[in-house]
């Protein structure tokens, strides 16, 4: 039997309904805040991710799935090297949505100077070559938001408030959500802070793992996220970002917190929260669910330099993304089934002698907008009733010899088992009303 790729999932039935429900809630909640949907390609030039996410991040260095056509693979094998490939031949599956959306905003001039910000949201699959485990997949699904052209600290707070409303609308108990925030500074204050963390790691080199020693050179702030308990212990005494902010960043952070307080949003400050993508400036945030054991269900932050990194004019921006699969797991742990609500439908059953009448009846019901099922395998009446139960029909139309001769149908309520006779001509409107 052919096998699914490890770390990927098939979405169907209740799981698919959950994915659709999540997008419906996103459309409703984000729409109220003025966001419109965007869809960008799942493959982009590697450069788009390298510029935006950062060359030294794990996502770009280790986790990006590269894409080559068969012909290109042949020529690469013959040459034995990737050197000489043009930028447009270096492609990758998107590991996240932000870089592609910002690339699209630059290429399509979605934020012309002096115009209103672009407020965009998206939903789709993302790809990371990680080791699969619970809540960690190689193809997973994100719903995300990118707000380009907004610099006010109120927009950081608004984005976070919107995210928390989205989670509550999905069914999370409000007090189960843990929102952590931090400020990582900007181009003015971060380089000096980064250097301090680098020196700190090198001063404690004998106590740190090899990965952290490599991080000291490539991306020292990532040492705060090291899984090694010794490194974590050492990094407790490392210099912290909020203590090294320039005046502008400190004021921005203070205002974000004030707006969050005003909105009544509970948050914890975590001065070690650094996030795994390099484009962030100033505010960063993540949301976890107490006791769910799936890691962060969402995260984001401000990225005021990203538009420029992708070749656009300097434009502030911010956003977040949430992970569908982790949200489903975390909701399940709270007893919430996001995909529970099946579409209501009606089943048309018949005795074998009037099978030909089913076709027109089903057509009339569907023309009236009613989701309608019927037998297409020559089942007995008894097993058609079983089938009606199986597909979750709330009503069953029964056509028998006498009914059809009299121009009528029996309409059975599948829960109360009450039955009534309805004129075939009135059936679509009666059924539509009952649904
Ligand atoms: P991220 O934190 O890398 O941020 O991913 C956002 C969410 O996607 C995570 O909180 C998690 O729920 C989910 N996720 C990430 N990796 C996996 C995986 N391998 N398997 C399952 N779920 C996963 C971003 O992607 C940024 N683009 C967010 C953003 C938007 N920042 C600004 N705008």
Describe this entry's structure for a reader:
The mean pLDDT is 95. The protein is α+β, with helices and mostly antiparallel strands and 435 residues long. Helix 1 (13-32) packs antiparallel against helix 6 (153-170). Helices cover 39% and strands 20% of the residues. The strands form three sheets. An eight-stranded mixed β-sheet has the order 1-5-6-11-10-9-7-8, with helices on both faces. The chain has a five-stranded mixed β-sheet with strand order 13-12-14-15-16, with helices on both faces. Strand 15 (408-413) and strand 16 (419-423) form a beta hairpin. It has helices at residues 13-32, 46-53, 58-63, 70-79, 98-107, 153-170, 190-203, 210-218, 229-235, 247-263, 306-309, 324-333, 355-367, 381-390, 401-405, 427-434, and strands spanning 36-37, 43-45, 66-67, 91-93, 118-127, 139-148, 177-183, 268-269, 281-289, 298-302, 317-323, 345-350, 372-374, 393-399, 408-413, 419-423. It binds histidyl-adenosine monophosphate (HAM). Histidyl-adenosine monophosphate binds at residues 96-98, 128, 130, 135-137, 140, 142, 144, 146, 276-277, 296-301, 319-323, 325-326.
């Amino acid at each position: 039997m052919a096998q699914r790729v490890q770390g990927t999932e098939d979405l169907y039935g209740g799981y698919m309904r959950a994915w659709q429900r999540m997008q419906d809630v996103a459309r409703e909640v984000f729409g109220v805040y003025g966001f419109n949907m965007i869809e960008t390609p799942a493959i982009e030039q590697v450069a788009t991710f390298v510029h935006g996410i950062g060359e030294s991040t794990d996502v770009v260095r280790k986790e990006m799935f590269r894409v080559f056509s068969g012909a290109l693979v042949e020529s690469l094998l013959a040459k034995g090297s990737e050197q000489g490939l043009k930028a447009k031949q270096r492609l990758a599956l998107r590991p996240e949505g932000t870089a592609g959306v910002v690339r699209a905003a630059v290429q399509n001039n979605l934020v012309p100077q002096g115009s209103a910000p672009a407020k965009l949201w998206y939903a789709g699959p993302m790809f990371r070559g990680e080791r699969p485990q619970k809540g960690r997949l190689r193809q997973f699904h994100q719903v995300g938001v990118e707000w380009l052209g907004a610099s006010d600290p109120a927009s950081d707070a608004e984005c976070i408030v919107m995210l928390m409303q989205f989670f509550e609308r999905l069914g999370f108990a409000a007090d189960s959500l843990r929102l952590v925030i931090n400020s990582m500074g900007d181009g003015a204050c971060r380089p000096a802070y980064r250097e301090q963390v680098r020196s700190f790691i090198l001063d404690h080199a004998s106590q740190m793992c090899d990965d952290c020693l490599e991080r000291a050179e490539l991306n020292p702030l990532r040492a705060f996220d090291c899984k090694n308990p010794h490194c974590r212990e050492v990094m407790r005494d490392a210099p912290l970002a909020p203590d090294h902010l320039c005046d502008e960043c400190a004021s921005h952070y203070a205002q974000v917190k004030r707006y969050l307080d005003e909105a009544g949003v509970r948050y914890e400050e975590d001065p070690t929260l650094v996030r795994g993508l390099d484009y962030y400036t100033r505010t960063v945030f993540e949301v976890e669910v107490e006791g769910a054991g799936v890691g962060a269900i969402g995260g984001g932050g401000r990225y005021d330099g990203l538009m420029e990194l992708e070749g656009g004019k300097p434009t502030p921006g911010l956003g977040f993304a949430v992970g569908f699969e982790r949200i489903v797991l975390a909701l399940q742990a709270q007893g919430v089934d996001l995909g529970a609500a099946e579409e209501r439908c009606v089943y048309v059953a018949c005795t074998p002698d009037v099978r030909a009448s089913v076709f027109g009846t089903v057509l009339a019901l569907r023309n009236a907008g009613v989701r309608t099922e019927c037998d297409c395998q020559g089942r007995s009446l008894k097993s058609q009733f079983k089938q009606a139960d199986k597909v979750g029909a709330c009503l069953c139309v029964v056509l028998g010899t006498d009914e059809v001769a009299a121009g009528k149908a029996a309409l059975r309520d599948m829960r109360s088992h009450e039955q009534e006779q309805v004129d075939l001509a009135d059936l679509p409107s009666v059924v539509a009303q009952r649904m």
